[in-house]
Amino acid sequence: MEHPAAQQILNLYQRHADAFVRLRSRALFEKSWLDKFLATVGKPGRILDMGCGTGDPIAAYFIAGGYALTGVDGSEAMLAYARAQFPAQRWLQQDMRGLALGETFDGLIAWDSFFHLTQADQRAMFAVFARHSHPGSALMFTSGPGDGIAMGEFEGEPLFHASLAPEAYRALLAEHGFTVLEMCAEDPQCGGHTVWLAQKTA
Fold first, then answer.
1. CA-to-CA distance for 80 and 177, rounded, in angstroms?
2. PANTHER family this protein is in (predicted)?
C-alpha cells in the first residue's frame, strides 16, 4: 500500500510555496554537478527541468548561461514564482509522471524532485526520461543512497522520499539506453546528495 505522505507531495509544495522560497538555499552548492551536466548537454542546448519548483537557483543558473529552459512542476504556486522571475522561459504545470511533450531535449534534470516519487513511480519514470531524450542527451537526477523509504518534514508535515538500490538504477538506465557517466553516493561536497549523471547512447 502506498504511503499516505507520498500522495501529498504536490499539495504540500502548493500550500507551502512561500515557505519554500524563504528557506531554499541559493548558495548553489550544486554548482559542480550542474557544470558537469552542462558540459554533457553542450551549447546551445535545450533543458527540461522536471520538478523545477520556483526556478531558483538551478533553472536560474541554466538561464543565466544562455540555455533554453522548459520547467515542469505540479505546483502552480511554485511556478508562479518562476514565471514572474523568468517570463521568457516555458513553465508547465504538469505531473512529471505523465509527461509526454512530444519533443526531446539536450538535457533532462530532476534534482531533489524524483526522489519524492514512490519506488514504483521511479521505475516508470525511466520511460519518461527516454521519450524526452535523443542520442547524446544528458540526464541528471538525485536519489537516496540505497533501497528504502525515508521520511522528512517540511513546515511541520511529513515529507516523503524513496529510493531504489544503486544496482536497480543502473539496470533501469541501461534498459532505457542511458550510460552512467558519473555517480556519487552522499557527496560531501554537495550537501550529502546522491547524484547520477548519465547520457543517452542508444
1. 35
2. TRANS-ACONITATE 2-METHYLTRANSFERASE, TRANS-ACONITATE 2-METHYLTRANSFERASE-RELATED
Phi, psi of 163, rounded to the nearest 5 degrees:
-150, 150
pTM of whole model > 0.85?
yes
Convert the pLDDT of each residue in 134-174 to its tens digit. 999 999 999 999 999 888 876 778 778 899 999 999 999 99
Beta strands in 1-132 (DSSP E): 46-50, 68-73, 90-93, 105-110
CA-to-CA separations, 201 to 135, 144, 165, 176, 198, in angstroms, rounded: 5, 25, 23, 9, 9
- Kindly report the length of the chain: 202
All three cell numbers of 151, joined, read 521520511
Angle at 119 between CA 143 and CA 54, to 5 degrees: 50
Q: Please state the φ and ψ torsions of residue 12, each to the nearest 5 degrees.
A: -60, -50
